[in-house]
Design goal:
This is Carbon monoxide dehydrogenase. It contains 25 helices and 16 strands. By secondary structure, the chain is α/β, with parallel strands linked by helices. The protein folds into 4 domains: 54 residues, no CATH class; 161 residues, Substrate Binding Domain Of Dnak, Chain:A, Domain 2 (Up-down Bundle), CATH 1.20.1270.30; 150 residues, Rossmann fold (3-Layer(aba) Sandwich), CATH 3.40.50; 213 residues, Rossmann fold (3-Layer(aba) Sandwich). Helix 19 packs parallel to helix 25. Iron/sulfur cluster binds next to loops.
């Protein structure tokens, strides 16, 4: 099977770079996907196990061969254990990112991370008071130090609940307590996943999955929420601003530096150093008109939200950015970075620079990043890019024209501010029916789905039906590329939503940030539920991850559903090998936690499922 470039992506910039790759004989993620086909059906169904060395074991899905692993584990046990390990990895990724942000914050408070400061003073004091820290008579740094220590305790504490869970409606917290899934220390939940899934420990699928929900909650209401809060203190809470997206943001005459990965700790410094007069002078000397920093994935979303730095693309566009031939440096930290970038950058002049002490790749120039000399390292990285500019091979350069404007920066605080300080106007619009409900659409790209097709069509369908969409991660970038993140996109919305967008001068799709910023959506949903005196599961709201691929998305799914939000997945998780697990996730959970998953690759049908859910919730609340 050989897909055409039009079947691979709906985005013209992506299509044209895929053509360039084909012409130059360059392999991309789509080629490697085709070479993997047909993919292993045991893996797809989740029924292979390598958790001990008596295995590997696999269950015959047709009932003709083995129905148990060597130890006696059934398909239900194997599928549940595999899923729990995915949740553990996802929660670990978000939460370890959070830990590093807190450690930087702590070093900053001790004067050991001089390049960082406190840009979000209001958030510092509000968070300190949430954590019971008295600020009176103390310096900002003293308060920051005490807060950092309190936050670090959240990772290692043995008993719950995590303090951020107090933001959730009381009814939701009571339900978590009754079910025994109130999250305790973040690290504890993740470690317990690994313990439970060791050979011969937890062997009841429901029991295993309940711990999956608890671990997910320790991510959403723990690791991710702490990452968002601390980053807002260090770098400021995002406010609405304009920017541009897609591969066309790369400059033909400036030094292009791409920041890719997830942590703003590095990218914030890169953005700052790109304005350093010494480096700008060097760029001029090398024949460049300036320095252009652009993002990919969530590190890009972080700088986009706070500085309006342009975004070059989504997860599936990372290789294509290099293929433009116009990138002097691809600077990466952690998560969602394809190891293929090493050999790919070798075909162009691009320097592939890895910076995280935790993440190295074949073919990188290693420039490890530490907070103590953050500015110096960032400057060295950008200098390397500038010095690489004369190596650009003009014959290989082809930057697509596509560059789309977008309005971003809708933190929960910014949304409430736009509404006049409280969620009341939004609640009124929902109660009156102008806005039918809220759709949270998030997550990655996945080569199994035509690039951006799921994202864009699902979101368009929701806004057409008067559902206000909040978005993060690669969905947000996909929507921006399709022109949905500008106030003018209101023409694509139903009349009710259109009126609200026009009155407030906002887009019908609100970019709330990076993947860890899904915690902002939880905070917003809680604010609405609390002001109505209901649970999150009572709200006319639904979630979706139309093109998800990462383990982080599995953890996100676990905490979003556990928070009471029905969620549609666009790619099939590896659970279909167990009827018990599949039925619990798609039906049983509803009766337990007030929400469940659905799987629907067709974005139009997925939108219908979300709309049906929203309608059902409206009816239950007595709304027309
Ligand atoms: Fe096989 Fe059981 Fe070992 Fe898994 S834990 S590999 S099912 S023997
Ligand atoms: S970057 S986790 S591909 S959304 Fe957060 Fe995109 Fe998914 Fe990575």
């Amino acid at each position: 099977m050989k897909l055409t470039v039009f079947e691979k992506s709906i985005d013209p910039a992506t299509q044209s770079m895929l053509e360039k790759a084909e012409n130059e004989g360059i392999e991309t993620v789509w080629d490697r996907y085709e070479k993997q086909l047909p993919q292993c059906s045991f893996g797809q169904l989740g029924i292979c196990c390598r958790n001990c060395n008596m295995g590997p074991c696999r269950i015959d899905p047709f009932g003709e061969g083995a129905d148990k692993g060597i130890c006696g584990a059934t398909a239900d046990i194997i599928v549940a254990r595999n899923l729990l390990r995915m949740i553990a990895a996802g929660a670990a990724a978000h939460s370890d990112h959070a830990r590093d942000a807190v450690l930087t914050f702590k070093k900053m408070s001790e004067g050991e991370a001089g390049s960082y400061g406190i840009k979000g003073e209001a958030k510092l004091f509000s968070l300190a008071s949430e954590y019971g820290i008295l600020a009176e008579g103390k310096s900002r740094e003293e308060v920051a130090g005490e807060l950092a220590n309190a936050l670090l305790t959240e990772f290692g504490k043995q008993n719950g609940p995590l303090l951020c869970t107090r933001r959730a409606p009381g009814s939701r917290r009571r339900l978590w307590a009754e079910l025994g899934i109130e999250p305790r220390g973040i690290d504890r939940e993740i470690v317990e996943c690994m313990h439970r899934t060791h050979m011969g420990v937890d062997n009841d699928a429901t029991h295993i999955l309940l711990h999956g929900l608890r671990t997910g909650l320790s991510d959403g209401w723990g690791g991710s929420m702490i990452a968002t809060d601390v980053q807002d203190i260090l770098f400021g809470t995002p406010e609405p601003k304009k920017s541009t997206v897609n591969l066309g943001v790369l400059s033909p005459d400036k030094v292009n530096v791409i920041v890719h990965g997830h942590e703003p700790i590095l990218s914030e410094m890169i953005v700052e150093t790109a304005e350093d007069p010494e480096l700008l002078g060097l760029a001029k000397e090398k024949g460049a008109a300036g320095i252009n920093v652009a993002g990919i994935c969530c590190t890009g979303n972080e700088t986009l939200m706070r500085h309006g730095t342009p975004i070059a693309g989504t997860f599936l566009q990372q290789e294509l950015a290099v293929i433009t031939g116009a990138v002097e440096a691809m600077v990466v930290d952690v998560q969602c970075i394809m190891p293929s970038l090493g050999s790919l950058t070798g075909c162009y002049h691009t320097k592939f620079i890895s910076t995280s002490p935790k993440a190295d790749f074949p073919g990188t120039l290693r420039m490890e990043f530490h907070e103590e000399k953050a500015y110096e390292t960032a400057k060295e990285i950008v200098k390397t890019a500038v010095e690489n500019f004369p190596n650009r091979n003009l014959e290989k350069v082809n930057i697509p024209e596509e560059k789309q404007e977008c309005m971003v920066g809708f933190s929960a605080e910014a949304i409430l501010k736009a509404l006049g300080g409280s969620p009341a106007p939004l609640i009124e619009a929902i109660a009156g029916g102008a806005v039918k409900g809220i759709g949270a659409v998030v997550g990655c790209n996945n080569v199994k789905i035509q690039h951006n097709y799921g994202h864009v069509n699902l979101v368009k369908e929701l806004i057409r039906n008067n559902v206000l969409v909040v978005t993060t991660g690669c969905n947000a970038i996909a929507c921006a590329e399709a022109g949905l993140l500008v106030p003018e996109a209101a023409v694509l919305a139903g009349n009710g939503l259109k009126g609200i967008c026009e009155a407030l001068d906002i887009p019908p799709v609100l970019h709330m940030g990076s993947c860890v910023d899904i915690s902002r959506i939880l905070v917003l949903a809680s604010a609405i539920a609390n002001s109505l005196g209901v649970d999150i599961s009572d709200l006319p709201a639904a979630g979706a991850a139309p093109e998800w691929m990462s383990e982080k998305a599995v953890s996100i799914g676990a905490y979003v559903v556990s928070s009471g939000v029905f969620t549609v997945l666009g790619t099939v998780p590896p659970v279909l090998g167990s009827q018990a697990v599949t039925s619990l996730l798609t039906k049983g959970l509803d009766g337990v936690i007030g929400a469940s998953f659905a799987v629907e690759p067709d974005p139009f049908k997925a939108a219908d499922m979300m709309l049906e859910r929203i309608e059902g919730k409206r009816k239950a609340l007595g709304l027309k």
